[in-house]
Amino acid sequence: MSDSYPLPTEPEGSVTSLLERFHSGKVSAMMALYDPEAVFIANDGRTITDHTEIAARLERDLRHGLPLKAKARHVFVPGDIAQIVQDWLIDGTDPNGKHMHLGGSASDVVRRGADGRWRYLIDNNQGTAVR
Q: Where are the domains positioned within the chain?
C-alpha cells in the first residue's frame, strides 16, 4: 500500500479514496482498494472475480485520462460491511479526440478488514441499471 494513497478508515472515505486513486492513473493504486474476495460487476451484468481481469478493466477506464466525479448519496453501515450508493460521472474528450460521457448510480459494498481499513467487496458501478 502506498502512503500517498491511504486506505479509508471509515466507509464514507471510500469515495474520496476512489477519486484520489483514479486520478493517479495507477492501476496498482486502484487495485489496493479491492478486498481479496472482491467481485466486479461488468456493464453486461457479468460477475468478475479474477483480479487480473478487474485490473484490465480498470486500466481501460484509466487510459482515457478523464477525471472521475463521484459523490456518495447514501452510506448504510451494519458493522464491518457497508453499502455505498454513489452518483458518478466521467465526461470529456479523451487523448484520441473521442468525447465520452459515462455515468450512473453505483451500488457498491465495502468491507472493513482486520487492519481496520475499508475495501471494495462488490464494485457495481451501474447499480440497478438495466444491462
A: 13-123
H or E element: which one contains 100?
strand 99-112
- DSSP per-residue string spanning 21-75: HHHHT-HHHHHTTEEEEEEEE-TTS-EE--HHHHHHHHHHHHTT---EEEEEEEE
Q: Which residue has the cell 462488490?
A: 122
**Taken in order 66, 117, 34, 86, is the CA torsion positive or negative?**
negative
Domain 13-123 has CATH 3.40.50.620: no
Q: Cβ(82)–Cβ(120) under 8 Å?
A: no
pLDDT in tens, 52-100: 999 999 999 999 999 999 999 999 999 999 999 999 999 999 888 999 9
pLDDT at 84: 98
Q: Is the pTM of this model over 0.85?
A: yes
